[in-house]
Amino acid sequence: MTQQRISHAYMLVGPEGPARDGAARYLAAAMLCSGDNPPCGQCRDCRKVSAGIHPDVTVVARQEGTAGLHREILVEQIRQVAAGAAIAPNEAARKVYIIDQADRMNRLAQNALLKVLEEPPGHACFILCTAAADALLDTVRSRCVRVDEWERSESVSGPAPLAEAYLRAAAGGDRADIVQFCMLRSKLTREDTEAFLEDARDALWSILCGRAENPGLSQDSLFALNALMDRAEDYLRHNVAPKQIFGVLAAETLR
Question: Which residues are paired to 12 by β-bridges?
Answer without folding.
Answer: 129, 147
